[in-house]
Design brief:
88 residues; mainly alpha; 77% helix; 0% strand
């Protein structure tokens, strides 16, 4: 039991050390903070554009979750038609 407790304690110290490493890095960052803010704003903007211009087709075309799941499964596992070109 003592070995397990020591192992957990070492694991916690290791994770805490990693956490402090990243926190100290983010605290001392100047340019990085600005870049992260830009990334977050762009991500929010991108998700809003997707939500506005690409409606939820499954929600509008199918009434139940079972129908939606069947449609997705059919599209994922359906056969792919291959057009042969030439004399093959």
């Amino acid at each position: 039991m003592a070995q397990v407790a020591g192992c957990l304690s070492a694991g916690r110290r290791w994770l805490t050390g990693i956490g402090h490493f990243y926190l100290d890095g983010f605290r001392s960052m100047r340019t990085g903070k600005t870049l992260w803010k830009i990334i977050v704003v762009k991500l929010i903007f991108f998700l809003l554009i997707l939500k506005l211009f690409f409606p939820d087709i499954l929600q509008t075309h199918f009434q139940t979750d079972r129908q939606r799941a069947a449609h997705v499964l059919d599209n994922l596992t359906g056969s792919v038609s291959v057009c042969s070109q030439g004399g093959e």
